[in-house]
Design a protein that fits this description.
With about 140 residues, the protein is an all-alpha fold. Helix 3 crosses helix 6. The longest helix is centred in the N-terminal third of the chain and has 17 residues.
């Protein structure tokens, strides 16, 4: 049920037209995620989950995983109000030609949620991060 609520949140919020969010005004989400070490563990867990997920692993076959890891850490840190700058490409640019479907996107979100669960991140905190990331959905699917 908890995953369904999170997926509905991401789907609903992500259906809006993407407009970049301003940096979080405080670092409470960053702290709740465990700061830099917590975010690094979440991203690592998510990438491990993706590597074991036959639904979406093919989308990452040609991906520089070390760079992806670094960019995701930067992005999660930035979006959660941490002291990071996101230096990666836009979501639209990095997903052009990938033809990511809604099912693919939802599978990735499930892998992220599983990684946060494994780190003991409370559901309310998970939903706060997902709400920050959700507007990017429109720049990711069907590109």
């Amino acid at each position: 049920m908890r995953m369904l609520v999170s997926l509905l949140l991401v789907t609903t919020l992500g259906a809006c037209t993407h407009q970049p969010l301003a940096p979080a005004k405080d670092d409470s989400l960053y702290q709740a995620l465990g700061g830099q070490p917590g975010i690094e563990r979440i991203v690592e867990g998510m990438l491990i989950n993706i590597s074991d997920n036959p639904k979406i692993v093919h989308h990452f076959a040609e991906t520089d995983i070390d760079r992806l890891y670094q960019m995701l850490v930067e992005q999660f840190c930035f979006e959660s109000g941490g002291p990071c700058e996101y230096t990666g490409d836009s979501m639209a640019d990095s997903h052009t030609g990938m033809d990511v479907s809604e099912a693919d996107f939802n599978a990735l979100v499930e892998d992220l949620i599983a990684a946060m669960d494994a780190e003991g991140v409370p559901v309310a905190t998970q939903n706060r991060l997902l709400a920050r990331l959700a507007p990017m959905r429109a720049d990711i699917i069907y590109r």
